[in-house]
Amino acid sequence: MRAGRGRPLRAADMKKDVRILLVGEPRVGKTSLIMSLVSEEFPEEVPPRAEEITIPADVTPERVPTHIVDYSEAEQSDEQLHQEISQANVICIVYAVNNKHSIDKVTSRWIPLINERTDKDSRLPLILVGNKSDLVEYSSMETILPIMNQYTEIETCVECSAKNLKNISELFYYAQKAVLHPTGPLYCPEEKEMKPACIKALTRIFKISDQDNDGTLNDAELNFFQRICFNTPLAPQALEDVKNVVRKHISDGVADSGLTLKGFLFLHTLFIQRGRHETTWTVLRRFGYDDDLDLTPEYLFPLLKIPPDCTTELNHHAYLFLQSTFDKHDLDRDCALSPDELKDLFKVFPYIPWGPDVNNTVCTNERGWITYQGFLSQWTLTTYLDVQRCLEYLGYLGYSILTEQESQASAITVTRDKKIDLQKKQTQRNVFRCNVIGMKSCGKSGVLQALLGRNLMRQKKIRDDHKSYYAINTVYVYGQEKYLLLHDISESEFLTEAEIICDVVCLVYDVSNPKSFEYCARIFKQHFMDSRIPCLIVAAKSDLHEVKQEYSISPTDFCRKHKMPPPQAFTCNTADAPSKDIFVKLTTMAMYPEDHYRDRLSRDMGNTDRIENLRKIWVFLKTAFHARLRCMCTCNRCTFCICQNFLNSDLLQSVKNKIFTAVLNRLRARVAEWGAMLLADDEGSITHQVHAVRSVEDSIFMESSHGPLFLEARHVTQADLKSSTFWLRASFGATVFAVLGFAMYKALLKQR
């Protein structure tokens, strides 16, 4: 809504342009006023009606384009007059100060005619213009003042002269000002006090500016208020002068060297009464108000683009602001907001945004008051589920003003697409949604309340009309603080698309109900068996006697069959707070989705599935590289055929035999040396060595060529050394070529 950070909101930000209509009796000088303004001299020849004049924005004081429209009774019909009245933003009723008949027509004709064409609740502002003041030596104000008191829509009266150019510019400035800074919404002339809507808006502004919540604006707060509204601070002496003016008129306007709410309202009343209501309007518009003293949609709902598969979270600056807001209203410093403290916080809202269910959505203390952690959690929940409502709430608190940001949108972080998280096997998110699914009365509510640290005894005290379908709290995973959001999904035959979208699923069944697990299994097969959303099955009410589930296989076998973690036993029937192990597991699954996490979970839970999978992969690779592969075609042109022909070629067989011969000769030489050295040993030991050598010979082509056998190559003759080195390099190159060829073949086969 504001054009720049820290810049006061101008009236130009609210109005696109101003349209001024001049009406009055014939020959009172309407056209002469317009011509004198444009040419800055009195015209010798005056046309019957002036053409519409547009004054550019850079010429006007308020930087708003201004259109000036003339009316001629001789050239225009009544229908055209009515149309011009409906299009005008302000109307100047011109009379001649030397013509009493034209003055009488102001009340007998023009004001009733204008009011008939406008709504009663949105009357157009009127300016009375007394022209030809150069022809008389007296003022018409004594005659005009009763008219002004009778009609509240009259903003002011200006006496001018088109011939002498007296007050011409002032006339159109007041007309423009009547549109951009109207008095009507702010002040009631009959009662000589501000209107209730204006008092309400200024009271909200005072409470936002009172950053320490002590009921007064101290010098630092007044200076901050002055700077954000008018972009200039007040000198210490100027601050003292303002306080002295307030002290002079009301006794309780200043307290403890600070300006009270009464003093703040008095100052604005004084501004309006002295014709400086643009000062009050500058303040109101800086805090987001429009001409009707309502907060504008542009202020409450700034533009925020959220791509698909992305979520919204509060950033670090937003949490700091909320922390200061909590501290501001936690007057007793008990790290919890009592009902009175919470009510005081919401005084800047037009309504109470939180219902009684919030106390069962976030953490509270023993007295049921929302704690600091619960306060932040509720804001986190609102941001995740309804970011537009969060922007609205932050607007009521004055986030963009107090933090001097462009809008509340600067408090929101839009996470990256979840598909990217799945590809990278990691996430940058801090809030994870878990849908809790199960039959009615299976223990889902107990799981939600257990996240908040409440056992069964505390849960029984919750009223049915205060129950919540959400619960949110922080969970620590590998030392990182994350928010886990649980959503209780009502039992139904089929889940909607919105009920499926989440980061992790918690399927809950009652161990004491034989029909409970069947629902979990059915929902899993319908919606999650082929999805990429990790699932965890929770065996709730584990403190009760477990019965056999009426399903084809047991929950444990079901989990093993679908490569899921085993069912997690859970109960909230504990003396202290229930265990949070399952919440850590759920959050971990959400942080490390798909197979990457499942491997982690298998290790953490002692599951041997991961080891078995690795063993199967190893067996497959050994088989693929050592078995004789048969070509599925006889083209002799494809990659597989070329590789197969190469492996069966005489060259490769010759390389193989050469290496085998060289190594075997060296082994036999070494055996002879060992025999000489061990001649003194017993015969059994020598036999053992010979058997060891034969074993090595049998397995030479199953071992790595980097083993200790080749470390003895320096003992071979020079000729053998050169020959072995050459054939070793050739063999290694051929092997690499074969492996790459096999990989290319697999890729081509997959494309087919």
From TrEMBL:
Membrane topology: Single-pass type IV membrane protein
Catalytic reaction(s) noted: ATP + H2O = ADP + phosphate + H(+); GTP + H2O = GDP + phosphate + H(+); UTP + H2O = UDP + phosphate + H(+)
Keywords assigned by UniProt, alphabetized: Calcium, GTP-binding, Hydrolase, Membrane, Metal-binding, Mitochondrion, Mitochondrion outer membrane, Nucleotide-binding, Repeat, Transmembrane, Transmembrane helix
Lineage: superkingdom: Eukaryota
Location of the EF-hand domain: 317-352
Chief place of localization: mitochondrion
Record has Cell division as a keyword: no
Compartments it resides in: Mitochondrion outer membrane
Pfam families: EF_assoc_1, EF_assoc_2, Ras
Membrane-spanning segments: 726-745
Gene Ontology MF annotations: ATP hydrolysis activity; calcium ion binding; GDP binding; GTP binding; GTPase activity; magnesium ion binding
Domain Miro: 15-181, 429-592
GO cellular component term, pick one: mitochondrial outer membrane
Quaternary structure and partners: Homodimer. Interacts with the kinesin-binding proteins TRAK1/OIP106 and TRAK2/GRIF1, forming a link between mitochondria and the trafficking apparatus of the microtubules. Interacts with RAP1GDS1. Interacts with ARMCX1. Found in a complex with KIF5B, OGT, RHOT2 and TRAK1.
Family: Belongs to the mitochondrial Rho GTPase family.
Function per UniProt: Atypical mitochondrial nucleoside-triphosphatase (NTPase) involved in mitochondrial trafficking. Probably involved in control of anterograde transport of mitochondria and their subcellular distribution. Promotes mitochondrial fission during high calcium conditions. Can hydrolyze GTP, ATP and UTP.
Listed name of the protein: Ras homolog gene family member T1
Species annotation: Microcebus murinus (Gray mouse lemur)
Source species taxonomy: Eukaryota, Metazoa, Chordata, Craniata, Vertebrata
